[in-house]
Design brief:
By secondary structure, the protein is an all-alpha fold.
């Protein structure tokens, strides 16, 4: 059992001290990942890496008593939290700029949600919600890759599947999402 899994189990049992132990284990990794993704942003970006990590962590351990089965489940929840934060941020920006120019973004270079135009993130979120209803396993992989910024190998490890299976899932999910987002682009014209 890893330290993270042990601490997650302690948090589930209601050990308040365990939350304090979890932060140092996961914070630095999340902070570096967020900083790396945001470093590709143009100057003037309003969402900072520290804010993204803090908001995700607060959503994960704050409020109701969280219950995670293992490390993979925790990182899946972290990916979902980051997804919701980025989409909420995109919706906020979009609402401030109604009628702005639409930018078409291809899914070919799909690596991270950071840096995407707000309109695109909202359309992607809608498509991902549909995918989650059809195939939650594929949607979870997309969240881990796209919103948490994990590599295919890392996502496969967390999901408990082989690298090849993850690759097949990733390929199919990208095509499926591309079709859905492109259909949304056609409706906007």
């Amino acid at each position: 059992m890893t330290d993270v899994t042990r601490i997650l189990n302690a948090i589930e049992r209601g050990d308040a001290k365990a939350t304090d132990e979890l932060l140092p284990l996961v914070y630095e990794g999340l902070r570096l990942l967020a900083a790396q993704k945001l470093s590709h942003e143009p100057p003037g970006q309003t969402l900072q890496a520290t804010a993204l990590v803090h908001e995700a962590y607060i959503r994960l351990v704050g409020g109701d008593a969280p219950s995670w089965e293992n490390r993979g489940h925790f990182f899946g929840a972290a990916a979902e939290a980051m997804r919701r934060i980025l989409v909420d941020h995109a919706r906020c920006k979009r609402s401030q700029r109604r009628g702005g120019t639409h930018q078409r973004v291809e899914l070919e270079g799909l690596d991270s949600a950071v840096g995407e135009p707000p309109e695109y993130l909202v359309r992607l979120d809608e498509a991902l919600t549909k995918l989650d209803q059809e195939d939650p396993e594929l949607a979870e992989l997309v969240k881990l890759r796209y919103f948490a910024g994990l590599t295919l190998e890392q996502a496969a490890e967390i999901k408990g599947i082989s690298r090849r299976t993850a690759g097949r899932y990733w390929h199919y999910a990208r095509l499926w999402l591309y079709r859905e987002v492109a259909a949304g682009d056609e409706l906007d014209k």
